[in-house]
Design goal:
This protein has 330 residues and is mainly alpha-helical. Helices cover 41% and strands 6% of the residues. Keywords: mRNA processing, mRNA splicing, Nucleus, Spliceosome.
Length: 330
């Protein structure tokens, strides 16, 4: 039970959240001493001291031994904290390893548009981290480098990352606002002032600025429309974090209502039985004059000659078509 996912967990990408880490890596995590000694019965609150005390980021090192970072990531997938708790992890700038751990969890479990919205602000964090490679050697990386790897690479820390939708697709489909870097502070000031154009010394720069302004306005309109649709449809955020098993049970209990109110003519009367749509009957199914009830009449009234009654018998008997007999039967 110590390795089981918490009851009522959400299905992530159509599978158990712990299965986002491959089975060989997951098995090594379950067998590691750090998991058995320190990761038993952890919660979102009791996990904080262990995440703050991390001293490096890495995957499998040496003889395929999982790092403490991987063990805590597996624990996050197992307990599945609420999105508000994950956001609180991300804004704790004084604890850089906790932020990177939360960023890795967001990359594994959240939707593409939410990943861009939560991780791109961390690209401006240049704090130093210890990175341990597969050979056990340490190197210095920065937080923005790790976040960039999460957004661009397919495998980080020996974990295959889920497929990430392109950013321009998220802008068009989900209303994600275009990213404005520090080099575009002039554009940001123009957006906040509500100007339609920004001062530029070159015409090409002005065209690029105008194009980004249009993207910002379009993304704001899409986000506002999606917010209104979510508000009219009900609590979409709560429905997003509902267990898949409960959804299946509710679907089974829910009564099916046909979208087409039309009723078949033979189903109009509630007490009326089934009426065939083809009232025509076969001639041999009609009642005969000798019988008051319907009887089956063969369509082929002809009989085989050996089935006809013989002169010596009143009833029809079987006559062999081969009259020859065996010599021992004579």
């Amino acid at each position: 039970m110590a390795n089981a996912t918490i009851r009522g967990a959400v299905s992530i990408h159509g599978t158990n959240p712990q299965f986002l880490i491959e089975k060989p890596v997951r098995a090594r995590i379950y067998e590691s001493p750090f998991w058995k000694e320190h990761c038993f019965a952890l919660s979102a609150a009791t996990l904080l001291p262990l995440a703050v005390d991390l001293h490096h980021v890495g995957g499998l090192t040496g003889l395929q031994r999982p790092s403490h970072f991987l063990c805590l990531l597996q624990k996050l997938l197992q307990i599945q904290p609420e999105p508000a708790i994950v956001d609180a992890y991300l804004v704790a700038k004084e604890f850089k390893y906790l932020r990177v751990l939360a960023a890795f969890y967001v990359r594994l479990t959240f939707a593409s548009s939410e990943i861009y919205a939560r991780l791109e602000p961390m690209l401006e964090d240049y704090s130093k981290l210890r990175w341990r490679d597969a050979g056990g050697a340490y190197s210095v990386v920065h937080v923005d480098e790790v976040v960039d790897m999460l957004l661009r690479e397919e495998r980080v820390c020996d974990i295959i990352l889920p497929r990430l939708t392109r950013r321009d697709v998220c802008e068009t489909r989900d209303g994600l606002a275009p990213r404005i870097s520090r080099l575009e502070t002039k554009l940001r000031s123009a957006v906040e002032a509500g100007q339609s154009d920004a001062d530029a010394s070159d015409d090409s720069e002005a065209d690029v600025t105008r194009w980004k302004l249009e993207r910002v306005k379009r993304a704001a309109r899409l986000a506002h429309a999606r917010k209104q649709h979510r508000h009219e449809g009900g609590d979409a955020a709560e429905a997003e974090y509902t267990s898949q098993e409960e959804d299946d049970e509710a679907t089974k209990r829910r009564r099916f209502v046909s979208p087409s109110p039309s009723v078949s003519p033979d189903r109009i009367a509630a007490r009326q039985g089934y009426v065939s749509r083809s009232p025509s009957r076969s001639p041999d199914r009609m009642p005969s004059p000798a019988h008051s009830e319907r009887g089956y009449v063969s369509r082929s009234p002809s009989r085989s000659p050996d089935r006809m009654p013989s002169p010596g018998r009143s009833e029809a008997g079987y006559i062999s078509r081969s009259p020859s007999r065996s010599p021992d039967r004579l």
